[in-house]
Amino acid sequence: MQEVSQSDIDTLYRTIGTNVMCLRKAKGMSQLELALAIGLKSVGLVSVAEIYHNKKHFNIEHLYKISIALDVKISDFFEGVVDIKRICREVDNNSDC
Hints:
Residues 23-77 form the HTH cro/C1-type domain. InterPro entries: Cro/C1-type_HTH, Lambda_DNA-bd_dom_sf. This is Helix-turn-helix transcriptional regulator. GO terms for molecular function: DNA binding. The chain has 97 residues and is mostly helical. The chain has one domain (6-91): lambda repressor-like DNA-binding domains (434 Repressor (Amino-terminal Domain)). Helix content is 60%, strand content 0%. It has helices at 6-26, 31-37, 44-49, 60-70, 81-93. 18% of the residues are buried. The model has no long low-confidence stretch (mean pLDDT 88).
C-alpha cells in the first residue's frame, strides 16, 4: 500500500478548494452568498478554504451543503484528484523521474 504524504493531502485540499471556487464563480455566486447559503455568518471560512490558506479546508458537511447550494454533485469537488494521485504513482514507479 502506498503511503499518503502530507503533500498529497495538501494537494487534495487545494484541488477541492479550487473546484469549489470555480463552480461557485460559474454559478455567479459570491463567497458571501455561498457562506450564507450553507449557514455560515461570515465569508471567512469560504475565503480561506477555497485557497487552502493556513491549512483551512472544507469538511464533508461543508461540501455537502455547498453541493446543494450550487446544485452540483458532491463528486464535482473531487474532479482532478484521481489524476493527481495517478501522476504521483507514475512518478514513484518510474526511476527516470
